[in-house]
Amino acid sequence: MLKNYFKIAFRNLIKNKVYSFINISGLAVGMAATIMIGLWVTDELNFNNHFENKETIAQIFQSQTINNTIGTGPAIPRPLEFALRQDHKDNFKHIVMSSWEQPRYLKFGETNIYRTGNAMQEGATDMLDLDIIAGVKDGLKEKHSIMLSESAAHALFGNDTALGKIVKVNNEDDLVVTAIYKDIPANNSFSDMKYIIPWKHYITTQDWIEWSKESWGNNSFQLFVQINANTTMDVVNSKISDVKKNASSETAQFNPQLFLLPMKDWYLRSEFENGVQSGGRIENVWLFGIIGLFILLLACINFVNLSTARSEKRATEVGIRKSIGSQRSQLIFQFLSESFLIVFLSFIVALGLVLLFLNGFNNLASKAIVFPWTSLQFWLIALVFVIITAFLAGSYPALYLSSFNPVTVLKGTFKSGRYSSLPRKILVVAQFTVSVALIIGTLVVMNQIQFSKDRPVGYDKEGLIQIPVMSNEFIGKKDIMRNQFIASGGALEMTGTSGPMTNVWSNRSGYTWDGKPEGFQEDLAYTSVSYEFVETLGLKVLEGRGFSRAFASDSNAVLLNETAVKYMNIKNPIGKYIRDSDTEDQNPPLKIVGVVEDMIIQSPYSPVKQAMYVFDSEDNTAFYNVRLNPEKSTSENLALIETVFKKNFPNTPFDYQFVDEEYGAKFKSEERVASLARVFTALAIFISCLGLFGLASFVAEQRTKEIGVRKVLGASISQLWLLLSKDFITLVIIALLIASPLAYYIMGQWLQKFSYRTTVSWDVFAIACFGALIITLITVSFQAVKAATSNPVKSLRTE
Amino acid sequence: MIQITDLEKFYKTEEVQTIALNKLSFNVKEGEFVAIMGPSGCGKSTLLNILGLLDDPDGGSFMFNGTEVAGYNERKRSELRKHNIGFVFQSFNLIDELTVFENVELPLIYTGVKPAERKKQVEAVLEKMQIMHRRNHFPQQLSGGQQQRVAVARAVVNNPKLILADEPTGNLDSTNGNEVMDLLIDLNEAGTTIIMVTHSEHDAKYSHRIIRMLDGQKVTENILA
């Protein structure tokens, strides 16, 4: 029986090549898009799957309330470690303090490499279940040791033994290689961690780390934990939430609440809004999951429409089979098996498409997805996917076709009823509603990115490079380097800063100033900067002046951005003082010497944060910001700067970043969304048009006689074209009317997550509507014109 | 074999109700060959569809082999149909996508006959209908007469007790038409009951009895043999 069904299905496929092509190509494209989205979603959901202990690993986060706004983040103070070890150690298998991931120079002999890594406590190896391929598992036990990833060890030592060798870190510390671990695969936290140095060594490398030992207010570290098997995250949360609040009266005013963010949430659900977990990348997972489903549905709609449109052709067969004794259920099964065959063939084509385009997709999505040939789970899901798609596409046609009355169809008088095309029309409207909504959505995303890119950043980011100078060898060299860079002709100006110009590395509170409102809890972005800060960055000084070598008192001076002046409510700020309330006796007050225009340092979608730029009197320089000489080419400038750099630091590789590129990276996530959205929108339009093309050719075929008669009676080609096209245009206009308010609402909601946002403007709708109508016209006109220009004698003879 | 009593069938549109069968009653004995004649719209085809269990009557009784089948649901009807009734249509109604062999094989598939047995039975009936040499051809590659032979072969392959023929020669020239009638006669002589709707007096003469209808009612009944 099944053989008979497949035989008929196959012969139908061969016989109706155009319809088969439309069905199979539409479904294949839809399925390929869905498979790729499926692989992407799986990849996202499997983030951190590498870690054996992922269910019990967490990072400690804290929420603090500042001026009635709750801010949440992973930065914690050092004393928290001691408090947890002392009072709550029963809850944890491991408590692991960690630095932030940071690049360092690793040198052995003449080989010098620049890799990111962490400083961590000993429990890290066991907690992260590192795969030690050489050396000892407790490789962080000794203070002067270092654990290297396999790739870092290979880069440093080639095929020679690395164990026991001494690596010079940042040209300062000699650390002995105690273990080599397998690199943590991509798609996992810590995958960039190419080395680990012992925490006990790290805390001795800089004074401020040592000093922060007792400071509950210095949130500069990370703390990872693995909870014991006999407890849960919720139970531990209830025990530790007030640890900081109870331990430190100094920070209690901010109501610090500690909690564990489980490893499974690190990647997908790491965003918080006013203290409440609000999502993160999981939103994109949902977004593209839904888009994938819609694309598949669009392809299924083509199948439904073409099958039901052509039902008259299958009606006789249904009648014959029923008269011979077939039950309706058998016919349903027959038609479902036909759709299964078509879906299966489409799946094969879809697999080919996926293999062909997976690399391009990976580039687009910044992924390294490998096709899971050997995954049994994938093939099982694929089977279910094929069956579900076959049901989605085949159920309605099967029910519809099998419902025909044999008496009517065998009499040869069967004609689809007046309203039989209504479901098809509704489905076409649904298809174009989705397509138009996707067009509008994509345009809004692109507009938002452009809008934010066009936002004035407040400084001149072009022709500016930043050179990381975080190791101690750079201390005290700032002015020498500035002079030599300028003298080389490669630079116009240079300034040192304690953080990059594209991120805030430090936030401070605990200041007082005249007129500070009672109970006001300030939260200021803090960067220490050197002379020529204003000149190098091209900042606009709104009041006062920049730091100047002419004023010795500038060693205790500060610049505020205009938001900070408003935020702190300081009237006539120039000449006023800001005092550090904790260390008033030791630190002299900071004199406000200038107010500068706001610079976008953090998110280009958010308001600029209140910031203070304090004169760096202790040389806490982390970056040299160098303004390149516009008279020379970039490569010339870089060569000159590198020469100067190498002359002064011969053992340190010259590393730099273009500030405009670093700034551009802030748009990556949204640009990725936009690129993916563009591709999937194009696919949705393609599939919808394919279906429309099929329906248009069906209608043209069905109305052949009518067209012939009309031509004989004097209808012009344009009148016939209009006759055949207007029905489809009407459907698309209805779709536009539904999609526009829908997209307006959804995209309006999406834009809400950006403080600095564009509006959903009318031109977006105009472009989408115009585009959809043009595409529709082109699609249906081909068939309409073909039918309208055919010989009426021929078409009338078909009767 | 067939007893119909006061059989009624109405067709309703939004405005009018048409009576297709108006309290029609007659019997058909096993092995009989009955021709039903009458002008277009007199209810012949409606009657045939009800006798073939393709359609439901709106009133009256329809006894098939002593069992009332008028109220049967679709599943029971198709069960009864596939084991007992064969159809021959004016327009042949072969499935274009299936070959001659596959078309004839179809009823055996629905009755669950094993493939080897199916092959034997189909080949036997194709031989009998002298169409074996065309077994791998598709319907559109055959002449009208050949197509109707295939249709008859399909109708009889299951050895049904009853064959319902709806103007079986309507689309054929006289030579092919006569050949088809000869086939029906042969089947009838072999014991199959045949009820044939026809406009052709010539064809009707092959039957044992002619029932003439008008406006859904039986008007005359002529016994020929």
Describe the structure.
- The complex is a heterodimer of chains A (799) and B (225).
- Chain A has 799 residues and is an alpha+beta fold.
- Chain A has 4 domains: 1-47 and 272-419, no CATH class; 57-266, no CATH class; 421-455 and 664-799, no CATH class; 471-651, no CATH class.
- The two termini of chain A are 35 Å apart.
- Chain B is an alpha/beta fold and 225 residues long.
- Chain B has a domain at 29-41 and 73-210: Rossmann fold.
- Chain B has a 6-stranded mixed β-sheet, sandwiched between helices. A 4-stranded antiparallel β-sheet of chain B has the order 2-1-4-5, covered by helices on one side.
- In chain B, helix 3 crosses helix 4, helix 3 runs parallel beside helix 5 (144-156) and helix 4 packs across helix 5 (144-156).
- Chain B is globular and about 50 Å long.
- The interface between A and B is medium-sized, with 25 and 29 residues.
- Chain A: It is a multi-pass membrane protein.
- Chain A: The chain crosses the membrane at residues 21-41, 285-304, 331-358, 378-401, 426-446, 676-699, 720-744, 764-785.
- Chain A: Its main location: membrane.
- Chain A: Residues 20-242, 515-636 form the MacB-like periplasmic core domain.
